[in-house]
Amino acid sequence: MRVLVVEDEQLLADAVATGLRREAMAVDVVYDGAAALERIGVNDYDVVVLDRDLPLVHGDDVCRKIVELGMPTRVLMLTASGDVSDRVEGLEIGADDYLPKPFAFSELTARVRALGRRTSVPLPPVLERAGIKLDPNRREVFRDGKEIQLAPKEFAVLEVLLRSEGAVVSAEQLLEKAWDENTDPFTNVVRVTVMTLRRKLGEPAVIVTVPGSGYRI
């Protein structure tokens, strides 16, 4: 899942991004509304965690732009105000969910994951294919009943492959969904991660390389 965090309190923004990355999400961070508009014009995000009171361009206007563009991106709006009228106004603008500050990080993560599931074809909360069972919420992976410990990027790549339901996923698509914009697109990080993931999943290999196209399970 790829997430954009838009928050002008830099310490909070960076803390949220760090926490979501530990949950195997690819996260970009900006600190004002103008930068947010620039990013959503370039990258495809599953979820935008959007502070309402932003400098340069207000969070309401960023949300309106996402709606205007007809993007499948879901918006989780953050605000220091927890008044019902503010929540209603935010939802009427086009936000998909609303979370007042201060918030528990576990709740933020759960809401981001719930919104992320709504950006694509609905899938069961636990993904299963070829003897592999992946639970995104619990961050657990099993193969034939045996638990497998994966690093965040390995988990993210496996989740993308399972969500494709047998379709081929290109290296570029994996890079876009599992890494943030600071990753050099010309590195071999995808190939190395897939190799490590194959080794951890064991034999027989379930990740198939499709020459010239990508990978599938």
TrEMBL record:
4-aspartylphosphate PTM sites in chain numbering: D51
InterPro entries attached to this UniProt entry: CheY-like_superfamily, OmpR/PhoB-type_DNA-bd, Sig_transdc_resp-reg_receiver, WalR-like, WH-like_DNA-bd_sf
Keyword Repeat attributed: no
One Pfam family from the record: Response_reg
A single MF term (Gene Ontology): transcription cis-regulatory region binding
GO annotation, cellular component aspect: cytosol; protein-DNA complex
The entry's keywords: DNA-binding, Phosphoprotein, Transcription, Transcription regulation, Two-component regulatory system
Domain called OmpR/PhoB-type: residue spans: 124-217
DNA bind region: 124-217
Record's signal peptide: none
Domain Response regulatory, residue spans: 2-116
One GO BP annotation of this record: regulation of DNA-templated transcription
Lineage top rank: taxon: Bacteria
PANTHER family documented for this protein: REGULATOR OF RPOS, TRANSCRIPTIONAL REGULATORY PROTEIN CUTR
Protein's job: Member of the two-component regulatory system CutS/CutR, involved in the regulation of copper metabolism. CutR suppresses a defective melC1 gene, encoding a putative copper-transfer gene, probably by altering copper metabolism.
Protein name (database record): Transcriptional regulatory protein CutR
Organism: Streptomyces antnestii
